[in-house]
Write a structure and sequence with these properties.
The chain is mainly alpha-helical. The chain has twelve helices and two strands. The protein has a two-stranded antiparallel sheet with strand order 1-2. Strand 1 and strand 2 form a beta hairpin.
Length: 305
């Protein structure tokens, strides 16, 4: 193990799904890049020194982060409840500007009322709006759902297509939604650039781009295609559980030694642990029906409105 920097997070605790994540002893930060490097990344290392590295070193560090996250989140998965491609497509459209938990609490009644594209395309707009009201922006989302369902009925025989160009031709479906469906319903690799993913890859200095398509292209150039879907799940899981937007739990982060932005959040291990969410903090996750290997608790069903 590399020499300690003297700012170690807390020691490893027994394996317990409801307890905070394992925190490894920080490794020494990467050595400064050699002069003349064609590309470089700058930030702050764990010990406070400036972070300089070549483009190649950044790629190696990014791939190591992915390997570390695979150990932290071996159960990473899409956090929307679904049983078929159509349900996943609808749930993903509904997930815009709300939480997956809110969507999961809303879709059981929606799918019971309108189980197929043909059913949903014929839904009275007012009734559909009322069913999806808890997800917010319900009028715009209802228009998208009615439009994409009619397109599935009329153009694709009532089936969700398994090609990117076909999916993004549907009303309300962009690249992010399309890659969620392709990766998780059809096994086609894709990078899902949501707000969590974009925030973390910029914190990790994988890219400085803010446009989702440019972020997607930059990250795709770093990783093999076969890794794209699971990489997306791991990064999003980490963003929701530990590397939060306003108060990242730096002191409880298992990849802190690899992060150029260490110190943006709480570095005290005990205080950082109090910031952990979902199964890392001992709380329910976002799915009412999580996968069998999920170590946390199932989310509660929606109460009366």
């Amino acid at each position: 193990m590399a020499k300690s920097t003297g700012r170690e997070p807390a020691a490893k605790k027994p394996d317990d799904a409801a307890k905070p994540p394992v925190v490894r002893e920080p490794a020494a930060p990467p050595a400064p890049a050699k002069r003349g490097a064609a590309k470089s990344v700058q930030g702050a290392a764990l010990d406070g020194r400036p972070w300089h590295e070549s483009h190649l070193a950044m790629v190696r560090r990014a791939r190591r982060i992915n390997r570390e996250l695979a150990e932290v989140y071996p159960y990473a998965h899409p956090e929307l409840d679904f049983e078929n491609p159509f349900q996943l497509l609808v749930a993903t459209v509904l997930s815009a500007q709300t939480t997956d938990l809110r969507v999961n609490q809303t879709t059981p009644a929606l799918f019971a009322a309108y189980p197929t594209p043909e059913d949903l395309a014929a839904a009275p707009p007012e009734e559909l709006e009322e069913l999806i009201r808890p997800t917010g922006f319900f009028r715009a989302k209802a228009r998208s759902l009615l439009g994409l369902s009619a397109a599935l009925r009329d153009r694709f025989g009532g089936e969700v297509p398994g090609k990117l160009d076909d999916l993004v031709s549907l009303p309300g479906v962009g690249r992010k939604t399309a890659f969620v469906v392709l990766g998780n319903a059809f096994g086609v690799p894709g990078i899902t650039v949501d707000t969590h993913f974009g925030r973390l890859v910029r914190r990790w200095k994988w890219t400085e781009e803010t446009d989702p398509e440019k972020v997607e292209a930059a990250v795709a150039a770093i990783f093999p295609k076969k890794d794209w879907t699971m990489l997306s799940h791991r990064v999003i899981f980490h963003g929701r559980r530990i590397c939060h937007s306003r108060k990242p739990a730096c002191g409880a982060c298992p990849i802190a030694p690899l992060c150029p932005s260490y110190g943006e959040g709480e570095t005290d291990p005990e205080k950082a642990r109090k910031l952990l969410k979902y199964e890392k903090g001992g709380f329910p996750g976002q799915r009412l029906k999580p996968p069998p290997d999920y170590p946390g608790l199932a989310a509660p069903e929606a109460g009366p409105r």
